[in-house]
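Work through this:
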Amino acid sequence: MEWNVMVATMVVALGTYLLRALPLGFALSRRFERVEKFSDFFALAGPSLIAAFLVVSVVPSTETSFDELVRRLLALCAVFLAHRQWTNFGVSVIIGVIVYALLSAG
């Protein structure tokens, strides 16, 4: 995996995390009484981004070597282990992306 792709993936992961964290921060701060517009936007944007990531990851790439299969399976195992440890979907996905990027860079 090229470094520019890894950086772009991390930026998108951070954006996805912020799409979830910012509405919670607004709701907990009570400074914004009318956050319905924000809530509607973030409620629709989050699942849309996750669905887009799913489509991108499910569509097969042109590289289907055994090494690529092993990298994907190891990253998937990292996601399962991280989810079992922290029960946080966002952290699990970020750890899976990092493991895949490290395995691809080596």
User: Anything to note?
Assistant: The chain has a mean pLDDT of 75. The chain has two domains: 1-59, 60-106.
